[in-house]
Amino acid sequence: MPGRPRRCRHSWERPLVFKRRDRRPLWQIAFEFFWPRGGWARAFHYVKHRMRRLPDSPEKIARGIFAGVVTVFTPFYGLHFVTAAMIAFIVRGNVLAAILSTFIGNPLTYVPIALISVQMGLFLTGRHPSEAGTGENFGQIFYYAAINLKNNVVALFTDVDANWGPLRIFYHDLFYPYMVGGIIPGVAFGLLAYYLSVPLIRAYQARRRGALKKKLAAIRAKSEAAKRTADAKAQERKT
Predict the structure, then answer these.
(1) What is the mean pLDDT of residues 150-167?
(2) How far apart are CA 174 and CA 139, in angstroms?
């Protein structure tokens, strides 16, 4: 029938909305998580470029950056975007800037951030580092806690008794010290990022406004010149 849309008969003719045309294997997905395509330098410049072009005041954007940096020092992995947005809302910062700033936390920085936060938390809670996990067995505590959590979920639907021992060790030796100890370095680095970001963002926005004014002036001059040329030709035809 005329006017009826033609159906796609082939897979390559179907529109791709949120899917990749070339499916990546699992090893490539895992590798790009630790080393994104183009390297971390390119990813950093992309985030920096997006941050500078945010349509907001330098102070509000910087407060968003502060919220993102503070979030990186929290143990709420998987919820960093939500946590950053909540902190940005509290401090009246730019939410998108806060989410973009969580880029600071990546596989290259999470290990030193976790070590600093946990050691600080053990110190603040009055515990000696030897009484809890150290850098050599943090990974084991995470692993055993994950396995224990999986077994306890299975125990809900079977006759197996749940065992919360490894999860208690994980909470007391890692999660709680991490949560407490990440406050001081998180706020310190967040304030540093705030005071460094404000003048940089302000200078970038001023330069960008100047470039836009020059571009608009050039377009206006070109338009006026074209109008004068057209008026002159029209006058020549009359004579």
Answers:
(1) 80
(2) 10
